[in-house]
Amino acid sequence: MAEEIISATNLISLLIQAQEEALELIKSGSKSSEELRLLILGAKSDIARLTKQIRLVSKEERQKVGPVVTQVKRSIEEALGQLPTRNVSKEWIDVTMSGIRPPQGHLHIVSQAIIEITRIFERIGFTRVRHPEVDWDWYAFESLNMPANHPARDEWETFFIESSLSFRPLSRNPSSRKTRIPGRAQDDNQHIVLTPHTSNGQVREMEKKNLPIRMINIAKCYRRQSDVSHVPMFHQFEGLYIDRSVSIGHLKGVLDYFVKQFFGPQRKSRIRPFHFQFTEPSFEVDITCGVCLGKGCKLCKSGWLELGGAGMVHPEVLKNGGIDPEKYSGFAFGWGIERTYMMKAGTQLDDIRLLYSNDIRFLEQF
Ligand code: DAH
């Protein structure tokens, strides 16, 4: 059946009418630009349908319609292009809805322990101080009664630094140190170490000449050890109290106070005779096991767990720090932070290196 011929004028006026309706719809802002494009220019739209009807216009008149179709489509595209990509004003937003929470981190367990230990000692008048973690052999060993080649040094698996390096740790009192180092007149012959313990802070603190001393020195320590119970970099906290007439009774009082504050009121401490070069007498400090509270169990065997070393500061060490041992006395103690914390948390870590492996699944638990 032959298709009906339509006049160009008729088709043009239908196209213009469709264009007006389309522009009206775009202006109303009721739909997104994607929806509008589909509705106005899509395959099922009026404009598409009218465009197809060009072939029903007589050949002579067709060229009048073509430019109109192009113009109609262009004006619609332009209007669509001016729309904002998302019409937020018409969207429904629930401002009370909770957002997506970013994952919240927390301080590393060792940082938490450092803060807690500092606060406990601050409450009884100790001040946290800092001393070099790369220091002269003098402060780490010699001034603590351990001259070069002394066998007691074997306890500390020390990292020594080539003394040809231009780096030199600062000393508060270099001239006094020079004269006091037996057989070592020149600083350049002195070894530099990565401090294997925080006891290097003892003589350094004494050199400040600010008595009485109530210091808590917390720092990183380094030893050439790495196994399930050792990491080459760990932390210690060192207490030092120097005043007139300081006795073992004061030391025991401070130890008891710390143990009850940090581990809980039901835990007890005891001191056991031991030997360190820099304290006389020297002790090892134990605390009651957190599981059996001292009775003895599978975990602790004897009921006691070893915390670390302590003692009354050796008169020679006081002298090395420029303090008269006839007038002053003091006590010191030094323990590992990681170990102390593990004893509190009751965490049975089968490998202490986990603390520094940066495994978030492990760290999240504390
Ligand atoms: N510095 C010792 C160590 O690392 C621990 C220590 C023992 C510190 C006795 C002290 C002390 O202050 O009095 O093994």
List the helices and strands and how they pair.
Blueprint: H1 8-28, H2 33-41, H3 46-52, H4 59-81, H5 109-122, E1 127-129, E2 134-136, H6 137-140, E3 159-161, H7 174-180, E4 192-194, H8 200-206, E5 213-222, E6 233-243, H9 248-263, E7 269-276, E8 279-288, E9 304-313, H10 315-320, E10 329-336, H11 337-345, H12 360-363
Parallel strand pairs: 1-5
Antiparallel strand pairs: 2-4, 3-4, 5-6, 6-10, 7-8, 8-9, 9-10
Helix pairs in contact: 1-3, 1-4, 2-4
The structure holds 3,4-dihydroxyphenylalanine.
Subcellular location: Cytoplasm
Organism: Candidatus Gottesmanbacteria bacterium RIFCSPLOWO2_01_FULL_43_11b
Protein name: phenylalanine--tRNA ligase
The bound ligands are: 3,4-dihydroxyphenylalanine
Radius of gyration: 41 Å
Give the N-terminus to C-terminus distance in angstroms.
85 Å
Overall body shape: rod-shaped
Order of helices and strands: HHHHHEEHEHEHEEHEEEHEHH
Structural class: alpha+beta
β-strand percent reads 15-25%
Beta strand count: 10
**Low-pLDDT regions:** 174-186
EC number: 6.1.1.20
Pfam family, one: tRNA-synt_2d
GO biological process, one term: phenylalanyl-tRNA aminoacylation
Domain Aminoacyl-transfer RNA synthetases class-II family profile: 117-343
Verbal overview:
With 366 residues, this protein is α+β, with helices and mostly antiparallel strands. The chain has a domain of 255 residues: BirA Bifunctional Protein, domain 2. The protein contains twelve helices and ten strands. Strands 1-5-6-10-9-8-7 form a seven-stranded mixed β-sheet, with helices on both faces. Helix 1 runs parallel beside helix 4 and helix 2 runs antiparallel to helix 4. About 4% of the residues have low confidence. The chain binds 3,4-dihydroxyphenylalanine. The site of 3,4-dihydroxyphenylalanine has 12 residues, from strand 9 and strand 10.
